[in-house]
Amino acid sequence: MKLVFKLTSILSLALSLSACHSLNKTQRNTAIGAAVGGVAGHMIGKSTGATLGGAALGGLIGSQVK
């Protein structure tokens, strides 16, 4: 089950990043930060709240990257 979840997550991330083609640099960094933060939050906290918190924090950090 963990393998299926990891593969699904990686595939979803790859597909969502391919949609970033028309975004400007700040929007793209925000989306990437949110995706990475969500995955990291899930890996650390293993709960919905941790996933959402990680995505929010990752998006915030990603939006500030120049």
Explain briefly what this protein structure is.
The chain is mostly helical. It has helices at 2-18, 25-45, 48-64.
Overall pLDDT score: 88
Largest pleated sheet: none
Radius of gyration: 12 Å
Overall strand count: 0
Core attributes:
66 residues
Task: Explain this structure.
It comes from Actinobacillus pleuropneumoniae serotype 7 (strain AP76). Keywords: Signal. The protein is an all-alpha fold and 66 residues long. The chain has a domain at 27-66. 83% of the residues lie in helices and 0% in strands. It has 3 helices and no strands. Helix 2 runs antiparallel to helix 3 (48-64). The longest helix has 21 residues, at 25-45. It is flat.
List the helices and strands and how they pair.
Elements: H1 2-18, H2 25-45, H3 48-64
Organism: Actinobacillus pleuropneumoniae serotype 7 (strain AP76)
Keywords: Signal
InterPro entries: Gly_zipper_2TM_dom
